[in-house]
Fold this sequence. Notes:
Layout: H1 2-25, H2 35-45, H3 49-72
Helix pairs in contact: 1-3
Amino acid sequence: MKLFAKVLVFIGIVSVLIGLIPVFFIYPNEDWDSFLEFVNYMMLEADERLLWQVGAVIWVLGIWRLRKERKKGRIFY
Length: 77
């Protein structure tokens, strides 16, 4: 199960990075009225939002599983 947790962390990191590439390289070149409008678009309207948001959830799940596996291996808590 430790390998599964590491795979989850890896998939989550890759997914977040792939999803955030347009945020840092494509969207800033567009004309935005304010930073808040940019953040609103990035969080709620962008096509890639699903990829990086699900990736973040998978990443957190993988970290949680890794910590749980490490705690299971201890003799004293």
